Amino acid sequence: MTNLAAIKAEATRLRGVFEAAGATPVDPPILQPADTLLDLYGEDIRARAYVTSDALRGEQMLRPDFTVPVVQMHMEHGAEPACYTYSGEVFRRQEDDPDRASEYHQVGFELFDREAPEAADARVFSEIYNILKPLKLRASTGDIGILTAAVSGLQTTERRKAALMRHIWRPRRFRALVDRFSGRTSVPESRASLLAMDNPMEQAAPLIGLRSHAEIEARIAALREDAAAPNLSENDVALLDAILSVRETSVNALEHLRDIAVDLPSISPAVARLAKRLDALNAAGIDVTALDFEASYGRTQMEYYDGFVFGFYAANRPELPPVASGGRYDALTRQLGQGREIPAVGGVIRPGLVVELGGAA
Amino acid sequence: MSIKIGVPSKGRLMEKTFDWFAKRGITLGRTGSDREYSGFVEGIDGVELVLLSAGEIPRELRAGRIHLGVTGTDLVREKLGQWDQVVEELEPLGFGQADLTLAVPQAWVDVNTLDDLDAAAAAFRSVHGFRLRIATKYHRLCREFLRENGVADYQLVDSQGATEGTVKNETAEAIADITSTGDTLRANHLKTLDDGLILRSQATLYRARRADICDPDRKTLGELIERLGVG
């Protein structure tokens, strides 16, 4: 059997396992409207997805993943609760690393369930865990929901919280904002001189372009409000840092986060969800005393995930991308749902890596 | 066979390149009329001049169809993925200096840094319903720079010329373009951001790492590099 034939056979087998677990097979198109993906991911997606176009439909992208089309399909005409599986190629543009594949197979499992999100998290994780068990992979887990809950509980202005939320998935900008809001870095000179002026628009050059006078004044007002707001306290910064540095087994991480929640009660509901999820994982036969948990896991790679996140890695092959990955993406269903939303969690396996690691049945 | 040097086919860039080689005892020149794109090399045997548009030289270097090439750093970094594995930077030539930089309307008194641009972009998107448009022809360089600096809620719109005019024409809100003195920016009521310098570019002599080369040519190339004093 050729390698590609082996990968396709493995993909079919994996999809069969998910179907046997109750998932409905779906087959979204390869060409996706570029607008939707650009609105979700921003311009960065162009560095990762192939863009093509025609005169009739405009810009299209070769699907970089299945999640977006599956969510759209479900939001349009899916019944609840729903569980889907799919298998096929995804396409990733590579600009910097010739060893990374630009076309590979994914087999996915997606669960849309309003009733018991923690049980749904555990179900998706354990389905994939059980399939990959013979490969003896290392599983990493995290929970973006704890970080967002921490930000929402900070003693600071709503505007600052919104800025931090917006950059949860860009750790460098997030850190720069924390440093500025806490007074660790000083206000840039240009901003200080702007704030010192009574009427900064008075001497300004003629206004060109779409951004209006009112928009500039609104931002100046926001900057004045920000300058008048007290610094984010050292205590709040220390709590954020404490959360971001949690990296231990799930059971220990839970205890550690419970300690932090005493000082930052806003994370308590998210920590309670973590506890429920660990119970559900335990009930599914997963040893949570040995399962790694890292609070900052998934912050750079998985931008639409907003709760539980996970990945499976071959420990002796560090050059390989994760064999499987996934997580919860409630906010994505809200953005694509045009006013509707449904809690959703899912994950994908790369059959090509399963074959490469000798795990195909 | 012979060693092929790719040089920009017209304008100041060509003349300055010819001057630079002449100072090192190698005469490059165009043959025939001004309209004919063929050239000659004197002062060393076995070297051939190929006149090309500066924008095509990175591609020709990557393909190995020329062994050496003179073009701007900006073009090499924009057009070649993993550029440093495709070409070797032999020598910056000290002319053709230009900065690729982000610029916004001067009237945006509230925007002077990337941090400001990011905040303005978020607000702009919520007011106008689309991402703030940055006009450029340097898509890759601009996108990588903005990603590294954590700027979001923008979109790049393609502009192959007269980029400074796009803001006034309301086809973009900001630009990323090459500027040498800043005069064109000022004349179009634009200003650079304090930390908006994406790349400092100048004309540079490159060697193609992947070009096929036979033994006599390798000897010629070695001699040429030594004569130019760039080895």
Describe the structure.
- The complex is a heterodimer of chains A (361) and B (231).
- Chain A is built from 15 helices and twelve strands.
- In chain A, the strands form two sheets. A nine-stranded mixed sheet of chain A has the order 1-5-6-12-11-10-7-9-8, sandwiched between helices. Chain A has a three-stranded antiparallel sheet with strand order 2-4-3.
- In chain A, a hairpin with a 3-residue loop joins strand 3 and strand 4.
- In chain A, helix 5 crosses helix 13, helix 7 packs antiparallel against helix 8 and helix 12 runs antiparallel to helix 13.
- Chain B is an alpha/beta fold.
- Chain B is built from eight helices and twelve strands.
- The radius of gyration of chain B is 21 Å and the shape is elongated.
- Classes of the chains: A alpha+beta (361), B alpha/beta (231).
- Chains A and B meet through helix 8, helix 9 and helix 10 of A and helix 5, helix 6 and strand 9 of B.
Q: Could you write a compact summary of the structure shown?
A:
The complex is a heterodimer of chains A (361) and B (231). Chain A is an alpha+beta fold.
Instruction: Give a short account of the largest sheet of chain A.
Output: 9 strands, mixed
Tell me, briefly, the overall form of chain A: globular
Mean pLDDT of chain A: 93
Order of helices and strands of chain B: EHEEEHEHHEEHEHEEHEEH
Walk across the major sheet of chain B and give the strand order.
Answer: 4-1-5-12-6
The Rg value of chain B, from CA coordinates, equals: 21 Å
The number of helical segments of chain A is: 15
Question: How are the strands ordered across the major sheet of chain A?
Answer: 1-5-6-12-11-10-7-9-8
Oligomeric state of the chains? heterodimer
Number of strands of chain A: 12
Report the count of strand segments of chain B. Answer: 12
Low-confidence stretches of chain A: none
In angstroms, what separates the terminal alpha carbons of chain B? Answer: 22 Å
Rough shape of chain B? elongated
- In percent terms, what proportion of residues of chain B is strand? 25-35%
